[in-house]
Design goal:
Shape: rod-shaped
Order of helices and strands: EEHEEHEEH
Number of strands: 6
Mean pLDDT: 76
Strand content: 15-25%
CATH architecture of one domain: 2-Layer Sandwich
Distance between the termini: 148 Å
CATH superfamily of one domain: General secretion pathway protein M, EpsM
CATH topology of one domain: Gyrase A, domain 2
């Protein structure tokens, strides 16, 4: 307890300052300080909220921009893909006639090869038939083959020898027809010896027989 002497009405008054009085005064100051801290806290809180809102808005804008960019890229990729498909379709449309033309060309070549092979087989069959038709009295000097027809040139010492050879050719199933176009008597070119017959025979190959085989 603190005693204070006060003058009152020219007199001395003893006044006592109790701890309660000091506490009241101190409490008043404390309440004022606390009020100032609350205002500052509210201000700081507002700043935090504003800063947080700015961060959220910035983040949203960034995400939105990224999504928009990805969407644009996806659209561009799809557009390029459609363009490639369109170009590929046009190339196919332009390539198809060329391929068909090449296919027709190769088909013609294959047909020609088949024909050549067919005639070659016919030639081999005909040569085999001629060889098996030769007799002791007849011989063959040359054979030429053109498009299924054979020109056979040879000779024979006797007429019956030639007839036998000709009949043997006619019996060959590979030939559709056999006919002689020339038969003439020939000599040995001045050398002493018997004369002989020269002949020329045309034989046509039966292609149906070859295909059937």
């Amino acid at each position: 307890m603190i005693k204070v002497n006060l003058l009152k009405n020219k007199g001395v008054v003893n006044s006592v300052i109790t701890p309660e009085a000091i506490s009241l005064d101190s409490g008043f100051k404390t309440d004022t300080k606390s009020s100032m801290n609350a205002e500052q806290f509210q201000l700081v809180l507002k700043m935090i909220l504003m800063f947080s809102g700015a961060i959220i808005l910035f983040t949203y804008q960034k995400v939105y921009n990224q999504r928009s960019k990805l969407k644009v890229q996806a659209i561009e990729v799809e557009r390029d893909r459609l363009q490639e498909l369109r170009v590929e379709k046009e190339e196919r449309a332009n390539t198809l006639p060329a391929l068909e033309k090449k296919l027709a060309f190769f088909k013609e070549r294959v047909d020609e090869f088949d024909d050549a092979t067919k005639y070659r087989l016919a030639e081999l069959e005909a040569l085999d038939a001629i060889q098996s038709s030769i007799t002791r009295q007849a011989w063959v000097n040359s054979v030429s083959y053109t498009l299924g027809k054979l020109d056979i040139r040879g000779g024979s010492y006797t007429g019956p020898g030639f007839d036998e050879f000709n009949q043997n050719l006619e019996r060959q199933s590979v030939f559709k027809s056999v006919r002689y176009t020339k038969v003439s008597e020939a000599s040995n070119g001045g050398v002493e010896g018997p004369t002989f017959l020269e002949f020329q025979i045309t034989a046509e190959v039966d292609e149906g027989y070859l295909i059937g085989r």
